Structure formats: structure tokens, C-alpha cells
Amino acid sequence: MAGSAQAIRCSNCGAGVTIRAVGRSVAATCTHCKSILDLADPNLAILSFYKNAKNYDFALPLGKRGKLRGDTWELIGYVRRADTASIFEWDEYLLFNPLKGFKWLMCSNGHWTLIVVTKQKPVVVRAGKPHASYLGHAYDIFFEGKAKVVYVEGEFYWRVAVGETVKVQDFVRPPEVLSSEESDDEIVWSIGDYVRKDEIMAAFGPKLELPATSGVAPNQPSAVKNEWAKLLLYAVGLSMFLVIASTLQQGMAKGEEVFAQEFVYGVRSTDPSDKTIVTPPFDIKGGTSNVEFDLAAAELSNSWMEMELTLTNVETGEGVGLQHGLEYYSGVEGGYSWSEGSKTAEELVSAVPDGKYTLTIEPSGPTPPRPLRYLVRLRRNVADFSNLAWGALLLWLFPCFIAVRHWLHEVNRWSESDYSPYKES
Amino acid sequence: MALKYLVYGIVVCSFVSCANHRGWRPFNDLFFARTWDPKGPSGMSHK
Prior knowledge:
The complex is a heterodimer. Chain A is α+β, with helices and mostly antiparallel strands. Chain A has helices spanning about 195-205, 225-250, 385-415, and strands spanning about 5-10, 15-20, 25-30, 35-40, 45-50, 65-70, 70-85, 90-95, 100-110, 110-115, 125, 130-135, 135-155, 165-175, 175-180, 185-195, 255-265, 275-280, 280-285, 290-295, 305-315, 320-335, 335-340, 345-350, 355-365, 370-380. The longest helix of chain B has 21 residues, at about 1-20. The chains are: A alpha+beta, B mainly alpha.
């Protein structure tokens, strides 16, 4: 970029003022006395004095050059503006390139947007929820209000003045924001594109102390929005695969019976060891598989019983134990019969290897009026869809997390807008 | 991110298929603690 700066003297205090966009800028501030000089006037008439104006710190120094989005830009002006209806303020930096002209770099709540004046005039649709249409895209209304210039420094392509107020409308379609600024004389439309902080650092210097980012900018794109469709596609595809594969696998489960015997509970005995039953050894073979314990007490009535069952490999001594209760109550009340509980139960244990096993049964419960017969049956390789359920849960946890994150991002993005679709009307 | 998720999903599906094949219920066993006890059932010896 050609360095065509020109030095002039402030017509108020005589301090030197550097003009960087010679022939393009029409107003410049004196760095010493802060007067605004009319560059179009050969005598550099003073447009306004604001000697006592408060000095603002801004993150990017005037005169700084940087390559942003493929072009080299020089920072030549700085404007601080404020929403007239609140105390909210933001910074706007004027960028200049002799070949590309002017662009604006806006910093609001630590979020950066690169802004350029539109080549075509967007169309605002007022019917229903107002929106703007530009180059075939619809932009949602986000903000309507007035913005006032509270501080300027540098040079500008119009006769800038502190206190200058314009009507502002912002329409968003992340990462873009379409804005109109309406003064008494004209309406200027501009379009901005969200710029990540690291891009600003890369363009203007990694050692810059940029303002901390807070909240979500109106045009800040959701980090996951572009990936969401692909993520959903993968989640659906993987889930279908999981369902089909699991169904095929479980469809082949034979549910072979490896043990079944009927026992009797309630034979009166004073020796507790009589209540513990150890079955003769039986074989479980056919490969490691799950084993289902089926318990049934068809004669159980208005009572309960509990069973501790232990399946022990007689060769290794390894075993698995489980405890399960059966309870069944029924009656007639007000002419209606009722029942609760169940006379049967199933429990599944996983990955039982081949071997010779015994089953130890310890029944307990109230002594029944007459001996109670109950059936214990073991089946191996039974259909079990619990892994499918857990697998589906694991598959959908991440997409759900991303969906919630995206939703929160959108809620936060719209939280500062009067037009939020997430606010109750 | 989507590609990483795809890899993660393939691992999950493979793991579930493998567990189904072995009659293993890793998630139920993890949360409901019904696992084989190498010392045998407490207080009993069936050898």
C-alpha cells in the first residue's frame, strides 16, 4: 500500500496533523486539541472544538496497518458511538486502502465486525415481523434505535461531528449484519461480517490488548451450525446401523434352557440350612453368553418371597449372585377386583462362560399356610436389547449436547434484542 | 467435529456389536454392579 500521508498544521493550536487518505478524507481531528478540521477548506476551517472532551482508550492505534481478509488496511479514524436509549457504547474504526476505499471495523462487547457500504439497496419488509432482503437473502430485524457519536479521532470521509445522531436498524443473518443509518439527508446501508478475535490479532499484531469478549454478538455465528446437518446425518445413520445390527444379533439368540426345576418353600424346619438348596452340577455350554434367571411362583397369593440365587462355576469357584423378590397381592374392593405385584420375575446376568455350574437358592419370606411351589429356570443366550439402548444413548448424547449448546447460543444472541423469537410475547 | 463424531459413533457401534456377540452387558454391569466375583460367592464354597 502506497504511503501517501501528508502533514498539515491544526488551524486551532498549530500542532502537526497527519492526513493518510489524502484527497479522500474531508474531516480530521487534531491529535493535540481534538478540534475537527475541514480538510475541504484550504484554510482548514474548524468544524467543531471539543478541547475538554474525555479521552478514550481504543484497542487499535491509529496509523496501524494490517492485512485483514486478503487486503492491507490502515486505521485512519476512530469513532465511539452510543445507543441514545441506554448507556451502551461501541467502537468503530475506519480502515483505508487507496485501491479498495474504506471499510469499518466495529468492536462491540469485544466482538469484531468488518463493515462495508452495500452496493445495492436492501428492501425492508414491514409486514409481520420486519426483515430485510438483500441479494436474495432474508435478514431478521435485531435492533432499532438511535446512535450518537460521543467521540472521534483521526480522519473521515464525511464531516463528522460529536453529537451527530442517526436512526439505526440492524438486521442479522449470522455471520452477517445488515445495517441502515438514517440521517436527515440520506440512508446509508452497510453490510458487516463477523471477524474472529484471532483474525484481528493476526492482522494488527498479536501483542495487542483487545477488549475481552462478553456475551454473544448479534451476528456471531454458532460454532456448530454448519456442522449440525452432518452431525444429525451421522447420528441417524449410526443409529440405524446399531438398530439393524442389534436386531439381527438378538434375532439369532436361541434362549436355550440349561436348567429348570421346581422347588417347595415353606416346609417347616428349625434348621436354617434346610432352606438353602444347592442343585446338582449342570452344564452351560455353547460359548460365553448371557444367562437369564426366570422365577415363577404360580401359587403365591397375598404374600411375598425373596430368593438369593448364586450361580457358581464348580471348576473355578467363580460365581455370580443375585437377589430377587416375588410379591403378589389381590382382592376385591367395592365390587372391583384388584391385584398388584407379579408371580414371575426375570433377571439377566452377562457373559457367563462355558462350564459346569451349581445353583444355590436361599428362599426367604413369611411362612406360607401350605408349602409353596416355585420354579427356577435358567436360559442362556437370550435376546437382550439393553446394549442397544445404552449404545443409542451414547450416540445421541453428543448431538443433544450440541443442540442444547446451539439453542443457548441463539437465546443469548437474541437476549439483547426487542425482536427475540425466544422471548414470550 | 462431525468427522470426530463419526469415528466415535463407529467405536460405539462396534463396541455394542462386540458386547452383544459375547452376551456381555457392560453398561448394566457398570451401573448395576452385577459382575463375576473371582473369589466366589461370599461365605460359601461349592468346590
